[in-house]
Amino acid sequence: MKKTAVKPVKVGVIGYGASFNMGLHHLREMKSVGMIPTAVCDIDPARLEAAKKDWPGIETYRSDKEMLKQSGVDLVTVITPHNIHAEQAIRCLNAGRHVIVEKPMALSTAQVDAMIAAAKKNKRMLSVYHNRHWDGCILQAMKFIRAGALGEVYRVVVHMGGYAPPRDWWRSLKSVSGGILFDWGVHLLEYTLQIANAGIVEVSGYAHQGYWAPKVAWKHDANEDEAMAVVRFDNGAWAILCMSELDRDHKRPWLEITGTEGSYAMEHDTYALTTTRDGERITRTGRNMPGDWQAYYRHIVQHLTKGAELTITAEWARRPIHIIDLACQSAEKGRALPAKYR
Fold first, then answer.
1. Are residues 206 and 176 in the same domain?
2. Whether the predicted pLDDT of 2 surpasses 50
3. Residues 278 and 163 grouped into a single domain
4. What is the separation of C-alpha 147 from the centre of its chain, rounded to a whole number of angstroms?
5. Confidence tier at 5 by pLDDT (50, 70, 90)
6. pLDDT for 116-161, tens place per residue?
7. Are 290 and 138 contacting, i.e. CB atoms less than 8 angstroms apart?
8. Which of 11, 72, 128, 130 is the most exposed place for a label (fewest CB within 10 A)?
9. Is the dihedral of CA 324, 326, 330, 332 positive or negative?
10. What confidence score (pLDDT) does residue 3 get?
11. Which one has a higher pLDDT value, 7 or 55?
12. What is the CATH number of the domain that holds 90?
């Protein structure tokens, strides 16, 4: 029996901004796994000219509506400010395109729910670019956890901070970025959810705001100075995420995992595993294994062309957003809030 040839996936990006060159990064990653870079959309003519130089012959558009109407792309990756992810993703899904959204997926659980509903209605794939699911630091930590080196994990503490005024860009505007928890916090919560491997029961949120706000131009729309989410899981474990711009003396590890048989300090490049044997404290240190960011798009193309199971589903990506959404609401209400999605 003759095998039917698999049609290559034609891809486009919405957003080709100069910050971090993420549009270029995504198209390169997609090309490396056999997809065909086809279209770029950006509101800035200068960035479209940059895309033409990077990708000779590529289609360019000033609006996503124009791209969806005129281009034959199969898959669109949305790389725009956080507050417009949901509307653009839904528009692409309703136009019959598969969609990947840069993290954070959206700014509320309700927005994510609407995105998932649109994907199901149109029978299209929806995923989020959680490439750090394959960071070497979390791969190394999970290797030790699965081997039982920590015993039963019951506490995860994540802390990232410094002392500096926020930069003058959209990521510091709360109405656009969502707040201090939404950027790196989503990555760190995605690590945490891998480690805890349990259902979410409730979330408490805490926030301090007002120190930096009077000192910046966007004082009425500034991110929090510091915010924290405390998560209770259904297996009895808990997790703490703290993001701070007021941390003058931050010497804690990036991520700490505590279990019944050991503790683990995770940094981006290195780790320290501490256990006891016959009453003696033993600390093993080392460098993390290499990461594999290309795994994300390998999984996507295998899902679209071969029907392989999707690793980063929309439902998985909803969980860190749900936690941050609840934490923000909890900080305002002054009480813990139960989780809708576990």
1. yes
2. no
3. yes
4. 26
5. low
6. 999 999 999 999 999 999 999 999 999 999 999 999 999 999 999 9
7. no
8. 72
9. positive
10. 47
11. 55
12. 3.40.50.720
Cis peptide before 104 (omega within 30 of 0): yes
In a domain, 217, yes or no: yes
Residue 308 has pLDDT above 80, yes or no: yes
104, 167: one domain: no
Q: Is the pTM of this model over 0.85?
A: yes
Residues 34 and 145 in one domain: no
Give the CA-trace dihedral at 128, 133, 134, 136, to 10 degrees.
140
Q: Which range of residues forms the domain containing residue 236?
A: 133-293+321-338
Cα angle 39-40-41, degrees, rounded to a multiple of 5: 125
Structure tokens, 161: 């901070």
| Distance between CA atoms of residues 129 and 314, nearest Å | 10
Residues 157 and 74 in one domain: no
Quick: pLDDT tens for 227-252. Answer: 999 999 999 999 999 999 999 877 78
Asked if residues 31 and 55 have their Cβ atoms less than 8 Å apart, the reply is: no
**Torsion angle of the four alpha carbons 244, 22, 115, 109, in this order, in degrees rounded to the nearest 10:** 0
Domain end marker among 74, 99, 131: 131
Burial 294-315 (b: 16+ CB within 10 A, else e): eebbbbbbebbeeeeebbbbbe
According to DSSP, residue 37 is labeled E
What is the C-alpha separation between 205 and 332, in angstroms, rounded?
8
Distance between CA atoms of 201 and 156, rounded to whole angstroms? Answer: 15
Q: Considering 97, 131, 165, which residue would you say is the last residue of a domain?
A: 131
Cα gap 265→137, rounded to integer Å: 10
Do 251 and 196 have their domain in common?
A: yes
Query: Does 183 fall in a domain?
Result: yes
Number of domains making up the chain: 2
